[in-house]
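Board work, copied verbatim: Laccase
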Amino acid sequence: AKTHYHDFVIQATSVKRLCKIHNIITVNGKFPGPTLEVNNGDTLVVNVVNRARYNVTIHWHGVKQMRTGWADGPEFITQCPIRPGKSYTYRFTIQEQEGTLWWHAHSSWLRATVYGALIINPKEGEIYPFPKPKRETPILLGEWWNTNPIDVVRQATRTGAAPNLSDAYTINSQPGDLYKCSRQDTTVVHIDSGETNLLRVINAALNQQLFFAVANHKLTVVGADASYVKPFTTSVLMLGPGQTTDVLIKADQQPARYYMAARAYASAQGAPFDDTTTTAILEYNTASCSSNCVKTKPVFPSLPEYNDTATATAFTTKFRSPRKVEVPKEIDENLFFTVGLGLENCPRGAPSSYCQGPSGTRFTASMNNVSFVLPSNNSLLQAHYQGIPGVFSTDFPAVPPVKFDYTGNVSQSLWQPIRGTKLYKLKYGARVQVVLQGTSIFSAENHPIHLHGYDFYIIAEGFGNFNPKTDTSKFNLIDPPLRNTASVPVNGWTVIRFVANNPGVWLMHCHLDVHITWGLAMAFLVENGVCELESLEAPPVDLPVC
Ligand code: C2O
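↓ predict structure ↓
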């Protein structure tokens, strides 16, 4: 196994998008940021130097960080932010993960522009479980605002209203042909007739689940979230923010140019969303194509309607592990967490400009009625490691404090969560099941729920209220997929299982940034086991302090 050294300089960079020049935060002046490529088993050492005006941290999304929680990155969870002018070196090893992950800023909404691909090839000397494709292309789906994303989040938190909608979606940071001033820079992916390309599709958008398709071409899904899956063929993908999907695409059509396109899967009823479509071009490399088809309009794919939950669900339920896997059959922790939005009353005396939600309220979100509050004077991991009291409590409820019809209309008294920095404590090695139950308080939506520090099995999903008596018959304990982000369906539920074998403090949250800002998060505190190999490592000497 190798060790790879990288320098990430966080800096302001000017880019032109949608006819205007913007100053954005980037890594090394690149947008999207640098692609990191390693083999399973390799170690990464990334020295992050902050030359921007904002605090920053970098999260390696989906990397299990076995015993190295200090390198996980979410600000105030596993570290204090890297202040302007300061630096921090993330050091971690990839263990038993192959495929596509990514990295992104985990500080305010900086990940809008601070993100890139992390490609994990098979262990040295080993091969893919499918024929090796001729080419491989990362496809990063993103979201673009004409204003600084920090201002977008400030506007949302100051006014208590929903944030501004994005002005474009992007593929490899380019909006594409359908947006003004964007045609010239549209992303082009070249392909030879007959060859196969591996597209590593990553949803790096801030607040939007996306459908993705390529005109006239079938996509064969072979992996997701850096685990292989039993291959299946589809004409459309749906990815929640945080999720990755590896697909093989074969150039078996007339040599021509074809659009790849992505647009919103907006499950929330009646909520406004950015309904624009981003495109890139798949271009066959033939003499006839370069002389002729460049002049003709590319073929456009058919994409599902924005509210096509049937297509989204048909896709997410197709995933299987390639073989029988070791899902915990017995469970020690039977947890039931509600995930959803809410509204809170305007704080007494607050100006009305501060409360622009419906009827003078503010938007909020919670799990089990707790709206998560980040600490500001320490990180949870440091407080845990050093035994500093008062930073968090470990009374996050195992089940909702009140039972109600989660997917029906509920009384307003249920809308208001309490605020707190509450963790749920797990013994080392505990076998954990979490039912993630979507609520329709205020608004029913899909929620892409991401767990740090672990991959988990998705053993079932369904609509309505989870029924522990009958829905257990739907559990797949044979070959469920291994993921790090689960799409909890609108007005429905998802059940996940994992073994708590990675000590530390691990955030679990909705990967729609607006929802994490409103508090749709909690964290697990996983205790050390008995020996050193079952314990959190000591913090690095350069760990940023608050
Ligand atoms: Cu990809 Cu907590 O994030």
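The chain has three domains: 1-128, 130-320, 333-534.
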